[in-house]
Amino acid sequence: PAGGTLARLARQIPYTAAMEIVLGGEPVSAEFALRWGLVSRVVPHADTVPVAIETAQRVAQAAPLALALAKQVVVTTSGVPLAEAYAVEAAAMATVMATEDAREGPLAFLEKRPPRWSGR
After folding, report:
1. Of 18, 14, 44, which is closest to residue 30 (Cα–Cα)?
2. What is the pTM of this model?
3. How many CB atoms neighbour CB 18 within 10 A?
4. What is the pLDDT of residues 54-111, one digit of tens each?
5. Mind giving me the DSSP string for 85-120?
């Protein structure tokens, strides 16, 4: 394992499951990966591409700046004390709420139309 696997795996899944993966050296099944949160879902092979496209389309419908900041907050606050994580989240929320997109979302909802995100 490389690329941070050894340093991060036991922080992301239970210690015993991480050690089974690391010390066992065997590929893990889809069911194992799902049970321990390594993947969010398992679908039949034939459905892989359609499900991936559906997921990508759903994500693409959201406000791009809000998505980027949400991802940034999740990544940068992993493993930090909660008080610090809350501060980072609050700063990101303040940034998002000051955007044109923050006004566009509720307006689109009221007008019963899809939002037109500007990324600003």
Report:
1. 44
2. 0.73
3. 19
4. 999 999 999 999 999 999 999 999 889 999 999 999 999 999 999 999 999 999 999 9
5. HHHHHHHHHHHHHTSHHHHHHHHHHHTTS-------
